[in-house]
UniProtKB/TrEMBL annotation:
Membrane-crossing residue ranges in chain numbering: 49-66, 73-92, 98-118, 125-145, 151-172, 221-244, 250-269
The protein, known as: Proline/glycine betaine ABC transporter permease
A Gene Ontology BP annotation from the UniProt entry: glycine betaine transport
Entries under InterPro entries matching the protein: MetI-like (IPR000515), MetI-like_sf (IPR035906)
Domain ABC transmembrane type-1: 94-273
Molecular function GO terms recorded: amine transmembrane transporter activity; carnitine transmembrane transporter activity
Chief place of localization: membrane
CDD domains xref list: TM_PBP2
Subcellular localization(s) per the UniProt record: Cell membrane
Amino acid sequence: MISPADFVQIPLDDWVNSFVRDFLVPNFRPAFRAMQVPITKVLEQIDTFFHWLPMLVFTVGLTLIADRTAGRGVALFSLVALIFIDMIGLWAETMTTLSMILTSVFFCAVIGIPLGIWTARSDRVLLVVRPILDIMQTIPSFVYLVPIVMLFGVGMVPGIIATIIFALPPIIRLTNLGIRNVRGDLIEAAEAFGSTRWQMLWEVQLPLALRTIMAGLNQTLMLALSMVVIAALIGAGGLGLTVYTGLGRLNVGAATTGGIGIVLLAIILDRITQSLGDKKGVQTPSLWQSLRSLFSASKADVGAQSGKPA
């Protein structure tokens, strides 16, 4: 049977290799290396703090945060899970993993929330960004590990960059979705009171979209945790390195222990961040109450003016 490949073959792999090796690496590697500086600074501060903090202080603090945000059940689970992680000898690795995750989520939020706001305010921007997000969410994470190593080298920071690329789309999508789903009558009421575009964004749209944005942050956090083991392939440490080393040496016990540590950490962070999006976790200002008080004040002013003697 005749196929198109009998007449024309497209050397896509050669084109990609030529683009990365002959164009990106020689021309842009210094710029990509400079991009590591802010990530390195944030990671060093968080990692140093977590490793300096005593285990008991961290455990009590996170337990209190869990109790405050997610309830006593999650707080008790967090307490038992953290003590268990320390008893199996993975405390230092857990702190390293937590530092990497928080750094990744921080930069995802810094990049993703403004970009999500921009896409919500401009259909043209959304038209450009949406296919990029589709590619980022569907392309296998192993595919962009090689270009990342060539451009950024190996180590924890390149692992964090790979994690940011993998975990960024949900927070952009859900920030856009949350702002676009704000009720039209509330926006019209705010416009009737003379709200500017920035006032509309900060005082109306973002507070009402906060739950959806927090859901996006939660998904970003979970995706970042799922990249822990894959990031270990390019030199990232922590629990992912424990799992990867165990698999490489056929040490089932070490791999299982590291996997259990990742699961426990994921459950704790998931429950806490999930609760932050609930009504009990985040006390957002009620726009309806604000508008009602404004209407009441306006009626009171009108009544006072009408009651004045001519």
